[in-house]
Recover the amino acids of this structure.
């Protein structure tokens, strides 16, 4: 939540468009596609005011999650390229069963 408070309070970023444009600037990314992804994933319009993270934490958590999904997709592409070029890297990675991951994600 500290990053949310910084983005909201210090940088005055109030919308998905504001946040993504700072996180993934157009000179380095396809920012409009990133904004579309986060907006579609969360169901929050790209120019809708998200509200204060203290009083509207769900909006900010959804955006963080959608951005993590987007970033993870980029990492998966890089890992895929690395496996093609360096198959020994894949062998060195520890294997985690999906059941183990889902067990950790279950509410307690």
């Amino acid at each position: 939540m500290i990053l949310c408070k910084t983005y909201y309070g210090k940088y005055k970023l109030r919308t998905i468009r504001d946040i993504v444009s700072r996180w993934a600037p157009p000179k380095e990314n396809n920012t409009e596609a990133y904004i579309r992804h986060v907006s579609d994933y969360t169901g929050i319009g790209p120019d809708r005011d998200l509200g204060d993270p203290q009083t509207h934490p769900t909006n900010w958590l959804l955006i963080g999650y959608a951005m993590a999904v987007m970033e993870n997709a980029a990492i998966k592409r890089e890992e895929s390229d690395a496996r093609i070029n360096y198959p020994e890297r894949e062998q060195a990675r520890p294997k985690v069963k999906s059941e183990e991951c889902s067990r950790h994600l279950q509410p307690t």
Summary: The CA atoms of residues 38 and 64 lie 9 Å apart. The chain has one domain: 2-105. The helical segments are 2-10, 16-23, 31-42, 57-85, 87-92, 98-105. Residues 80-108 have pLDDT under 50 and may be disordered.
